[in-house]
Structures are given as structure tokens and as C-alpha cells.
Specification:
Strand order of the largest sheet: 4-3-2-1-5-6-7
Bound molecules: the ligand C/C(=C\CNc1ncnc2c1ncn2[C@@H]1O[C@H](COP(=O)(O)O)[C@@H](O)[C@H]1O)CO
Number of strands: 7
CATH class: Alpha Beta
Shape: globular
CATH architecture: 3-Layer(aba) Sandwich
Number of domains: 1
Structural class: alpha/beta
Helix content: 40-55%
Length: 174
């Protein structure tokens, strides 16, 4: 399976890097490929290192203005002209999506993928990996959207929630 991971480009605390490494090593050791934003920085690097170290394939989708931080030894590296094109490529190249801890970039990618799914423009699994309860607030907001009629379909059809890497992979492989 080609698993697209959205996650932070920042250097983060051990609680986040350890969880990311565990999940990345699972991706690689189970024979899956990583599709990601292609950068060799922060948590994105931790995930790429973990997948590659465990024998998995790396498919990076970078963007012109971030090419200077793109990973050099990825199996494949695509460079798009714009962020919008990058998101389209990430969607096309992935069979499933995992949203790990991140900031506005991760949120932008996550909401786009969920919005496209809401409109039936793809039906790929999306798992939100809620390391250390980082996304408790977002989960609560999404639950409120559902409870108050803002979502045209059940939340469970849009996204699944996982507490750790093994749980996330179990949901994707199910
Ligand atoms: C030059 C520096 C960092 C490089 N920044 C990024 N590189 C690649 N991809 C990025 C970068 N920033 C955002 N993205 C995309 O959004 C997600 C991460 O954003 P967040 O705001 O950090 O959560 C990630 O999935 C990327 O696809 C300086 O260190």
C-alpha cells in the first residue's frame, strides 16, 4: 500500500518523534511505501528515515520553493510548481492517508483530503493518529460538526482515529 503521511516539518519533542518513528518502522517492515511532502526536515525526516531504515520505499512530492530541503536519496522525487499541484499529486499517488501531529501545513493537507472525501471525489481511508492527545480539540470540533448537522455524512465515514502507530496500521490494513 502507498501510505501518504502528513506531518510536521518542525523539530519536536520525544513524545512525538518516538511515536512517528514507531509508525514509520511499521510502514517499512510491513512492505508499504511512504508518500510524503519530500522534505528532509523535522518530523517529516523522522518518518522518512524510519520507513527507509525498515526497508520501505520513499516517494516524495516536493514543491518548487522547498526543493532545497528535499530528501536526496528518496526512491522517487516529484517536484511540483505549486502547493495545490502537490496536494493533487499526494492524493493521486496514495492509497490511504495518515494525519500525524503537525501545524497549519498538515491541517491544510488534512482538510483538503477530508473535503474531497466528503464530496465523494475519493474514497481512500483517512486515519488521524492522535499522538499524546494532540488532536483531542480537533476531534471534539469534528464531533460537534456531526452532532449539530454540519456534516452531510457520518464522521466515521470520513476519518478514523488511532491512538498509536499499530492501531493506525490496523485500521489501514483492515
Ligand atoms: C525549510 C524548512 C522547512 C520545510 N518546510 C516544509 N517542507 C516540506 N513540506 C512542508 C513544509 N512545510 C509544510 N509542508 C507540508 O505541510 C506539512 C507540514 O506542515 P506543518 O505546518 O509543519 O505541519 C507536511 O505534510 C508537508 O507536506 C525549515 O525548517
Amino acid at each position: 500500500m502507498n501510505i501518504c503521511v502528513f506531518c510536521s516539518a518542525a523539530e519536536l519533542a520525544d513524545v512525538y518523534t518516538e511515536s512517528a518513528r514507531e509508525f514509520a518502522e511499521l510502514i517499512g517492515s510491513r512492505g508499504h511505501s511512504l508518500v510524503w511532502g519530500g522534505s528532509d526536515v523535522g518530523l517529516m525526516k523522522v518518518v522518512a528515515d524510519g520507513v527507509q531504515g525498515a526497508g520501505g520505499r520513499l516517494v516524495g512530492i516536493s514543491v518548487d520553493f522547498l526543493q532545497n530541503v528535499a530528501r536526496e536519496n528518496a526512491d522517487e522525487m516529484v517536484v511540483t510548481a505549486t502547493l495545490a499541484e502537490r496536494k493533487a499529486q499526494l492524493l493521486e499517488r496514495a492509497d490511504a492517508f495518515v494525519i500525524m501531529v503537525g501545524g497549519t501545513g498538515t491541517l491544510d493537507e488534512a482538510t483538503e483530503i477530508l473535503e474531497l472525501k466528503k464530496h465523494g471525489l475519493h474514497a481512500k481511508p483517512v486515519v488521524l493518529l492522535n499522538t499524546a492527545g494532540y488532536y483531542d480539540g480537533l476531534r471534539q470540533q469534528l464531533a460537534r460538526m456531526q452532532a449539530e448537522g454540519f456534516l452531510p455524512l457520518p464522521l466515521s465515514e470520513l476519518v478514523a482515529f488511532a491512538d498509536d502507530g499499530p492501531d493506525a496500521l490496523r485500521l489501514l490494513e483492515a
